[in-house]
Amino acid sequence: MSRNSRLVTMVFVLALLLVAAPALANASLVDTIQERGKLIVGIQTSAPLLRWSMRKAKS
Amino acid sequence: MVNEKGEIVGFEADLAKMIADSMGVGLEFRQLTDATRIPMIQQGSVDIVIATMTHSRERDKVVDFSISYFWTGQRVLVPADSNISSIEDLAGKRIGTARGSTSEQNIMAAQPAAKILTYDDAATAFVSLQRGAVDAISTDESMLLSLRADSRNPADWKVVGPYFSAEPFGIAMRENDSRLRDAVNFALIEAWETGEFEEIYNRWYGPGTKYELPLNFEIEIWP
User: Fold this and answer.
1) Which chain B residues contact residue A28 at CB under 8 A?
2) Do the Cβ atoms of A41 and B28 come within 8 Å?
3) pTM of the prediction?
4) What are the pLDDT digits (tens) for B61-78?
5) Record: contact B25-A39, CB cut-off 8 A
6) CATH of domain B11-70+167-205
7) CA gap B126, B121 in Å, rounded
8) I need a surface site. Which of B146, B173, B207, B213 has the fewest CB within 10 A?
């Protein structure tokens, strides 16, 4: 690749980053959630452990 | 908690459903422990975490939180025949609590003379109490009441002592996602204004319920 070609490539990449940066900065999980069609929620549940403890207590 | 059909149900599960409905999407639950709550957000395994998670300044450095949706405080659960009745009585005793929780930090600060044993979550700590491996467990009052109510014989256990910490629960999510935080906060505020929040609360903690804990707080409302 010639020096001029490298320069053109660098300018192109920089221009692309300048255009994409604001869009990336505004990216929100809300869009992903809407596209996916569901909200993924982390939650705790104690019931299986309690059932295990009850089985242990009975045995 | 999990019902007899294997479905995840409860106050927080219903809040999650309300938020998903408000966003017009479906809902998927992923189970986690106290210690995996923040890593799962950071890794993108979950969008939000609704899991009795205290909104602390330390946690706020790495994840963001919604407005608080529940206020409670930390207490102690012991066998009904125990002579432990306050935090002072725990000096030299073995106390179980959840690893990576604010409860762990609070109990260490409140009773430095106790021996603290940590578990994956409060339920596992309660199993340890049932087996006699610890003398008491300590976490948020709401969790202690749930553990006692769900045990084989609730009369075998008692929650003792006053609150020794303030625990405002928030919904955690990744840092710097303003639109997501707005979506969650607006859903909570609108649910409060329409009465849906109180309806959900009373379904699980209202008069005559297994976990009875009167609604004695208001969430932050923005006009």
Assistant:
1) 177-180
2) yes
3) 0.79
4) 999 999 999 999 999 999
5) yes
6) 3.40.190.10
7) 9
8) B207
